[in-house]
Write a structure and sequence with these properties.
By secondary structure, the protein is mainly alpha-helical. It folds into two domains: 48-146, 3-Layer(aba) Sandwich (D-Maltodextrin-Binding Protein, domain 2); 182-257 and 279-416, no CATH class. Helices cover 65% and strands 5% of the residues. It has helices at residues 2-14, 17-42, 60-64, 81-84, 121-142, 148-155, 176-210, 213-217, 223-258, 268-276, 279-309, 317-339, 344-349, 356-364, 370-398, 408-416, and strands at residues 48-54, 72-76, 97-101, 111-114. The chain has a four-stranded mixed β-sheet with strand order 2-1-3-4. The two termini are 23 Å apart.
Length: 418
């Protein structure tokens, strides 16, 4: 009977068009979200006119020589600053900002950027950077040393520091930036899947209870088998979606490898492709699937138990909050662990079962001690078993109860009841 429930629940979901649309379009959405900030930043801004009121007479000419190097165009003001802004009026709508320099900046002078509205960070950064470059050049020229500017420019050497684990000195090693990106990406995905599919279990239980369909079902199926079937079937739906993503990703990487000209011989993309096609990624994928299964079982069981106490989602909020706090906290802990994998907070959060599915995955990219990984998995298995046992009791004792208000006392009574 359990196999029939699993088959029915699973096929009902995977046969929906919405499942395939979400499964296929979500990776594209991830790519779009990742690329959108870069695309927006690459769009050049409109030209900004900046009037210069330089009472020192030291900087206006040099700034105007920089016209065309940025979005800011400089022009010398034809009137003194006091006359230009008399009665707090703005000289012209075409003017975006006024740069007022009262005296020599190296002798305690002050530069202030004025605007009709508060000047934005973009124009402030651009004007400040170019003004600093002018002041720096003038100070270097004051030393009257031959080629001092060229000497300083030549001395600004940026060292490209590579990072490797001591046991991965060959090509399978990967940079810290790639490790951080990968740990964050895998943590976000596992968080999203646990949250999404765990919530589906609770919603499904509530719908059956609200429509009283469950009364007919439990007449021929044990309540615990019904809940176990739901958890397993919805979990298999999640694994199917993950398998589709891995298949699509593997196909894309295979195409890129076949057309080697599309992959640069070095750089971040080359390092990422090398990691995704290496043996390390296979191990990380196995850990991802294991932590997803165990984390999903824990949270899906608890959310399914909450669903059996109520007939609508509004009433269940008081019980959902304590369950969701650990998983939300674990996402922030994973962000911290992606930069500080060996910090005390990262280590403890990767061992505590309610946060470890997400945080341990973030740390695993960098490598963790074997005993920590074994302890984490053992505690997760025990917690998953305990969650299923507790949830089964709550579900069995409440799925056919109607009209009773959910409370913590009722929850505890359901656990104690046989």
């Amino acid at each position: 009977m359990l196999s029939l429930i699993i088959r029915h629940e699973y096929l009902t979901r995977v046969r929906k068009l919405s499942f395939w649309l979400v499964a296929l379009l979500t990776p594209l959405a991830f790519v779009a979200i990742a690329a959108l900030p870069t695309l927006i930043m690459s769009i050049g801004g409109s030209n900004r006119l900046v009037l210069i009121c330089d009472e020192s007479g030291l900087y206006a000419d040099s700034l105007m020589l920089m016209n065309g190097q940025s979005e800011c165009t400089y022009a010398r003001a034809t009137e003194p600053f006091a006359a230009l802004t008399l009665h707090n009026t703005w000289p012209d709508d075409d003017v975006d900002a006024i740069l007022h320099i009262d005296r020599d900046l190296t002798l305690g002078g002050q530069a202030v950027l004025y605007g009709q509205k508060q000047p934005d960070m973009n124009i402030k950064t651009t004007v400040g950077s170019q003004l600093s470059e002018v002041v720096r050049g003038q100070r270097l020229a004051a030393y009257d040393l031959p080629q001092v500017g060229q000497i300083i420019r030549d001395s600004r050497l940026q060292v490209d520091l590579a990072t490797r684990r001591i046991d991965q000195q060959q090509s399978e090693g990967y940079e810290s930036e790639i490790a951080t990106l990968l740990s964050l990406l895998m943590s976000i995905i596992i968080y999203m899947f646990i949250f999404l599919y765990g919530n589906q279990v609770m919603t499904s239980v509530m719908e059956e209870k609200q429509t009283r369909v469950v009364e007919t079902i439990v007449s021929c199926v044990r309540p615990t088998d019904l809940m176990a079937g739901k958890i397993i079937a919805i979990g298999l739906t999640g694994l199917t979606q993950i398998a589709l993503w891995l298949l699509l990703g593997g196909s894309l990487i295979g195409v890129l490898n076949l057309s080697g000209s599309l992959i640069p011989s070095s750089g971040g993309l080359h390092a990422l492709i090398s990691l995704l096609t290496g043996s390390q990624f296979a191990g990380l994928t196995a850990l991802f699937l294991l932590f997803f299964i165990l984390g999903y079982i824990i949270y899906a069981s608890l959310l399914g138990a909450v669903g059996s106490l109520f007939e609508n989602q509004q009433e269940s909020q008081q019980f959902m909050i304590p369950i969701m706090i650990p998983i939300l906290f674990s996402m922030y802990a994973a962000m911290y662990a992606s930069s500080n994998p060996d910090a005390a907070l990262s280590v403890w959060c990767s061992i505590i079962p309610l946060t470890s599915p997400i945080v341990m995955l973030a740390r695993a990219v960098y490598g963790v001690d074997t005993w920590q990984l074994v302890l984490c998995i053992a505690l997760l298995c025990l917690t998953a078993w305990g969650s299923v046992w507790v949830a089964g009791r709550i579900y069995r004792n409440n799925i056919l109860n109607y009209g009773k208000k959910g409370s913590w006392k009722r929850l505890l009574d359901s656990i104690r009841s046989r």
